[in-house]
Amino acid sequence: MVAVIGSLNMDLVAYVDRIPRVGETLTGRRLIEFCGGKGANQAVAIAKLGAPVNMIGCIGYDDRGLSLLNSLTDNGVNVKYVNQTVDVQTGVALIQVDSCGENTIVVIPAANDMLSVESIKKSINAINESAVVVAQLEIPAETVKYAFEVAKSLGKITILNPAPADMFDDSLLTNTDILVPNERELESISGIPVKVDEDVSIAARILLDKGVRHLIITLGERGCMHFTGNDVKAYDGRKVIAIDTTAAGDSFVGTLAAILSEGKGIVEAIKYAITASALTVTKEGAQIALPYRAEVDNYLKNEI
Predict the structure, then answer these.
(1) Is the peptide bond before 164 cis (omega within 30 degrees of 0)?
(2) pLDDT at position 48, please?
(3) Domains of the chain (ranges plus CATH)?
(4) What is the CA radius of gyration of the chain?
(5) What are the phi and psi torsion angles at 3 (to 5°)?
(6) Helix boundaries (H) for the chain
(7) pLDDT band for position 78 (50/70/90)?
(8) CB neighbours (10 Å) of residue 16?
């Protein structure tokens, strides 16, 4: 079992030939609404991999919130611990996707900011019955900090996806077992400009010196790097044609959590996560693009 503590957003995705420059207006090709949010995406990724999962989050009393709940339920996620509030609307993410599948994202947290320490206290059972607890930073950092304190006191594996990185502070590392940033997030939380792989190693060392136990840096189509102590292992990416990279990172994190919750080792979990995230970018959207376990298993089987 996995507990995911995080955001639920409706994604408004504009497909464009290229991302506009500052002050520039471009004509987009189309606009599509998808169910998303880093927390919800990761929960769906976990469920599609076949692991039972509890979602802990907050939505508004509106049509978007209802759509998000239905999407989670349809994908097998337990929504018992998703709160609804009348005070604010459901969160929204404004996403631009270019012709190469790359994206930019602006998140309006709204109801996600209502996920409080008190919400976690009311959801202790979800954490207690889980082997792995996952969180991101589209919810208040204090909520994540408290949730991880509880999780570690109960002997759980904790995974933090530090996105958006501007919400990160070093105190979050105290109870984090596995930190999973991408290159831009690594740059932000380490303070080191990341332009080549050597920069990745320098930035990683800063975080390891701060007490990070497992640092997995996702590198897009180049795969990922796993740092522990003085050891580092690089994993190659899968060769696919990218259409939309929107939920690639969420697919990676969710798959990592799902495989670890089965009692498998981190090396196997990383190989599954790289494969799942690669398959995700071959489709449009967020939750709808996340692969099922059979798809990942078939890819790995054919690769051997």
Answers:
(1) yes
(2) 97
(3) 2-21+29-303 (3.40.1190.20)
(4) 18
(5) -110, 125
(6) 38-48, 63-74, 117-121, 124-128, 141-153, 183-190, 197-209, 248-261, 266-280, 293-303
(7) very high
(8) 17
pLDDT tens per residue, range 217-260: 999 899 999 999 889 999 999 989 988 887 899 999 999 999 99
- Please state, in angstroms and as integers, the Cα–Cα distance from residue 177 to each residue in 97, 158, 270, following that order: 32, 5, 15
Map residue 261 onto helix, strand or coil.
helix
Residue with tokens 């994908």: 75
Which of 72-86, 196-210, 290-304 tops mean pLDDT?
Answer: 72-86
pLDDT reading at 122 higher than 90: yes
**C-alpha distances in angstroms, 219 versus 37, 122, 234, 278?**
21, 37, 10, 11
pLDDT at 303 over 80: no
245: nearest Cα among 6, 50, 19:
19
Centroid of chain to Cα 65: 19
Q: pLDDT at residue 304 above 70?
A: no
Q: Is 25 helix (H, G, I), strand (E, B) or coil?
A: coil
Q: Is the pLDDT of residue 57 over 80?
A: yes
Please tell me the distance from the alpha carbon of residue 276 to that of residue 60, in angstroms, as a whole number: 30
- Maximum distance among all alpha carbons in the chain? 53
Q: Is 171 exposed, middle or buried (0-12, 13-18, 19+ CB in 10 A)?
A: exposed
What number of other Cβ atoms are within 10 A of residue 154's Cβ? 13
Catalytic residues: 250
Q: How far apart are CA 220 and CA 277, in angstroms?
A: 9
Determine the Cα–Cα distance for residues 29 and 299; give it in Å rounded to an integer: 32
Taking the CA atoms of residue 202, residue 189, residue 127 and residue 276 in that order, the dihedral angle to the nearest 10 degrees is -60
